[in-house]
Amino acid sequence: MSIEAAPVTDPPATRVITYRQALNETLRAELLHDENVFLIGEEIGVFEGSYKITAGLLTEFGPDRVVDAPIAEEGFVGAALGAAMIGMRPVVEIMTINFSLIAIDQIVNHAAKMRSMFGGQVAVPMVIRMPGGGGQQLAATHSQNLEVWFAHIPGLKVLAPSTPADAKALLTAAIRDDDPVIFIENLSLYSSKGEVPDGEQIAEIGKAAVVKEGTDLTIVSYSRGTTTALEVAHKLEAEGLSIEVVDLRSLRPLDRETICASVRKTGHAVVFEDDWLSYGIGAEISATIGEGVFDFLDAPVRRVAAAEVPLPYAKTLELAALPHAAELAKVVREVLNVAPLEK
Amino acid sequence: MAAKTRARTAEVQAFPGDTPADVLRGYYRSMSLIRNFELRSSEMYARAKIGGYCHLNLGEEATVVGLMAAINTGDYLFTGYRDHGYALMRDLEPGRVMAELFGKTTGVSGGRGGSMHMFDSQARLFGGYGIVGGQIPPATGVALAIKQKQASGPDSDAVMCLLGDGTTNIGAFHEALNLAGLWNLPIVYVIVNNRLGMGTTVEAASAEPDLYKRGASYRIPGIRVDGDDVLAVRDAAAAALERARTERQPVLLELMCYRLRGHSVVDPARYRSPEDTTIAQKSDPVPVFRAQLIAAGILDDAAADAIDAEIDAIVDAAVEFGDASPDPDPADLFAYVYATPVANAPSALPGDPVMEAL
Ligand SMILES: Cc1ncc(C[n+]2csc(CCOP(=O)(O)OP(=O)(O)O)c2C)c(N)n1
Ligand SMILES: [Mg+2]
Questions:
Q1: What DSSP element (H or E) covers A186?
Q2: This prediction's pTM
Q3: Hey, are the CB atoms on A313 and B103 less than 8 Å from each other?
Q4: Alpha helices (H) in chain B, listed in sequence order
């Protein structure tokens, strides 16, 4: 949407809805929009989704378009891929990103490769939706942020919306895109609320957004991390610090230009990420900033990421291992070399 | 002993074989322990002392007790995430099991695993596993190592690997069964068929809903048993383990039971029909077994109540133990990441600089 031109018509009305509802409404709208769209996954029909994203859709669209699959991630992800090869537009729900590892061969060795390896003869218009995230005491195997596994793979597009509005506009774009799109949601965002414009909204895949402007330092984040980044940025405003927040939205492709333009202006950057530090999303961002705007940097780029342990169940350990607002604020102050404001 | 139990009343016929009365009362006590512990877990979850996912063995007590009556202490046990009852039946102190649910250092997995990940190497409880089917290949591998290290025969160890009905649809189940059939491994796979995987019935998920038949492709004999019948479960499991030990013949047992409540403590199970819920409640193995024992003169109401009261005190004590136990210290966050210390192992907390400026 262009902001230069005066709108010819009134801007769309907006409603405040949850991230969950935005996803649900978008799935419904796309099922109505294109008869080739169908949903497939575990417990998405009768059970209405483990996190209730697909509530009501089986009743409305029936079992051919809302397909309950057995616990067979490799099988049904691969089956969705096959359907996509002849023009269907499957939207797969994997219950959580952790279980995508069972389907990783179909995703990485097959979905991501097909178009290129078969000389451009086939397209794979499929979406794989799945939530990641820790912090709910789900323990080591159920709390992972594996986005970088997918963001590393040529042939995949990887999206990670942080707001209900982006959940809608990016999911619509993902479903209409002709490539395999990994659509990463987050358990802790499902009940978050935000303004969502009515009507069809289609985001451009591959673009980051400056979600808060500032002049002193850039926080780069995505998904749940962006909400924490905004919270910290607003809090630090009271301390006289002007923080810009860049929400990546798309992890592959990565919008290096928006990141670098921001850091060129602020001269300082901190990446806030929920994945593990080594080889994580932040490593790619830091390298990009180092290469792109080294001369504009006034301090080294810092990363705030999860401690590199299989996430323990116990609350005390889980809190210690995951990155929170307090650590982000601390690192921002360190980079800007300012002391925290006395209470 | 057999004569003694049989002699009392005609109803004793309900307990075929020669299980002594005190053993039968012991089974009731065990079932009562699991029932009480699980109801208390649910309560503790509502009070936010337990977090994450919490799956209960409610309705599966006869299955759990029967299986654990058949297994030797030296045998290795692998389970899914619905594992509290198995931990209790491997004789782990209820307090340590509750402490794991509370995420305390005294928990069986040091508070690091939680409800889904009970482990005790001494008791050879080789883990609850949260990833559906995750336990099946490693269980098969333990059986492989047993075969490599021990002669077959009655003294050989064996493996028991539990899994749910829904879990028979995952690739790992089929790959592992093929390995066990091909290599003649000492393992018993036990399908705890509670007829539901979350909200999905067996018929809606499995093209062959007679799950015990799924061993056929791997030349693994399959046997279906009433999972609400503690003695039938015990005897079938004992026979299967015997074949595993002595013949290196893997076996697939399917135990038919009911899940009394939702998939996990937070699932209200609205998808379930009232008829289905009624059947599940009618076949609830704990009151049924109690009534059978009373009818057979092995217990009377007072004696059964006394057992329940004793169990209640044990579970009270377990909760107290959990409450009184310390939380893990964040300083120990990295304690168990690697067995062999290694240079440059990460130890940074979120927000720590990756390195000191050189
Ligand atoms: C690979 C994988 N996919 C999905 C899940 C989510 N999940 C957890 S339990 C479960 C149902 C399993 O049902 P069943 O095997 O019948 O065991 P029950 O819960 O009835 O004991 C599902 C789908 C998971 N944990 N792992
Ligand atoms: Mg089941």
A1: strand A181-186
A2: 0.95
A3: yes
A4: 2-8, 21-46, 61-70, 84-89, 94-101, 136-149, 171-183, 202-205, 230-247, 274-282, 285-295, 301-324
Could you tell me how far CA A123 lies from the centroid of its own chain?
23
- Tens-digit pLDDT profile for residues B308-354: 999 999 999 999 999 999 999 999 999 999 999 999 999 999 999 99
Which one is catalytic: A73, A93, A147, A318?
A73
Task: Collect all residues with Cβ–Cβ distance below 8 Å to B332 and sequence separation of at least 6.
Answer: A317
- What domains are there in chain A, each with its CATH number? 3-203 (3.40.50.970), 209-336 (3.40.50.920)
Q: What are phi and psi of B93, to 5 degrees?
A: -60, 130
d(CA A14, CA A1): 15
Q: Select from B53, B167, B334 the Cβ nearest to the Cβ of A138.
A: B53
CA dist B59 and B62 (Å) reads: 8
> Do the chains contact at A47 and B346, CB–CB below 8 Å?
no
pLDDT of residue A9: 75
**Helical packing angle, A256-266 and A281-293, nearest 10°:** 60
Residue-wise pLDDT tens digits, A151-160? 999 999 999 9
Nearest CA-CA partner of A37 in A174, A143, A192: A174
Residue A253: asked if its preceding bond is cis (omega within 30°), the reply is yes
- pLDDT above 50 (res B5): no
Tell me how far CA of residue B354 lies from CA of A124, A267, A279, A327, in angstroms.
40, 20, 12, 14
Q: Are A11 and A38 in contact (CB under 8 A)?
A: no
For the domain covering B14-325, report its CATH number. 3.40.50.970
Q: Residue A275: pLDDT above 90?
A: yes
Mean pLDDT for all residues in chain A? 96
Q: How confident is the model at residue A238 (pLDDT cuts 50, 70, 90)?
A: very high
